[in-house]
């Protein structure tokens, strides 16, 4: 978690609390599956699939913007 927060701060400079809360919740959810004897590899694959799906949705709804347009 410390490394995750450090990386977030170095790459973006903000959002360290958000990334820790998100990671904590992901671990909490994963723990429930571990308790039901799901193999950690299966859980990781599911998280990776969810990531791929989320990226696909974001790519589909993304809009290009002109960063020089000061009207935004």
TrEMBL record:
The keyword Nucleotide-binding applies. InterPro entries: Chaperone_TCP-1, Chaperonin_TCP-1_CS, Cpn60/GroEL/TCP-1, GROEL-like_equatorial_sf. It comes from the Eukaryota. The keyword ATP-binding applies. Pfam families: Cpn60_TCP1. Keywords: ATP-binding, Chaperone, Nucleotide-binding. One of its GO terms (molecular function) is unfolded protein binding. SUPFAM superfamilies: GroEL equatorial domain-like. Belongs to the TCP-1 chaperonin family. This is T-complex protein 1 subunit gamma. It comes from Tetracentron sinense. The lineage of its organism: Eukaryota, Viridiplantae, Streptophyta, Embryophyta, Tracheophyta.
